[in-house]
């Protein structure tokens, strides 16, 4: 659920939505890491000025913790 939301949201922001991909890695029973891979110019858009966009995304995802009790870490990486 969270991965699909994040993928769709990132594709709406991105200039090259076909290059956006998300890797989900389950660290343990209560922790999951989501990495957004995007074009170099789109990575900047996803982070936003002073990190405002990524912080807003993280705030929404923290709300998902109430439903499934998983903690999430979200990172953005650029692809060359």
Q: Can you describe what's shown?
A:
The chain is of the alpha+beta class and about 80 residues long. The chain has one domain (about 1-80): K homology (KH) domain (GMP Synthetase, Chain A, domain 3). The chain is built from three helices and three strands, in the order αββααβ. The chain has helices at about 1-15, 40-45, 50-70, and strands at about 20-30, 30-40, 70-80. A three-stranded mixed sheet has the order 1-2-3. The protein is globular and about 35 Å long. It starts with a helix and ends with a strand. It comes from Campylobacter sputorum subsp. sputorum. This is KH domain RNA binding protein YlqC. InterPro entries: KH_sf_prok-type (IPR009019), KhpA (IPR020627).
Contiguous low-pLDDT stretches (5 residues minimum) are none
What is the straight-line distance between the termini? 28 Å
Which structural class best describes the helix and strand composition?
alpha+beta
Helix content: 40-55%
Whole-number radius of gyration? 12 Å
Adjacency order of strands in the biggest sheet? 1-2-3
CATH class: Alpha Beta
CATH topology title: GMP Synthetase, Chain A, domain 3
Strand fraction equals: 25-35%
Q: What is the element string, with H for helices and E for strands?
A: HEEHHE
Total strand segments: 3
Give the biggest sheet: 3 strands, mixed
Which second-level CATH architecture applies? 2-Layer Sandwich
Structural domains: how many: 1
Number of helices: 3
Could you report the average pLDDT, rounded to the nearest whole number?
89
Shape annotation: globular
CATH superfamily: K homology (KH) domain
């Amino acid at each position: 659920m969270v991965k699909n939301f994040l993928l769709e949201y990132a594709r709406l922001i991105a200039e090259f939505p076909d290059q956006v991909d998300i890797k989900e890695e389950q660290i343990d029973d209560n922790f999951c890491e989501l990495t957004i891979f995007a074009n170099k110019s789109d990575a900047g858009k996803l982070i936003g000025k002073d990190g405002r966009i990524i912080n807003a995304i993280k705030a929404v995802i923290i709300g998902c913790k109430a439903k499934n009790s998983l903690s999430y870490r979200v990172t953005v990486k650029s692809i060359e």
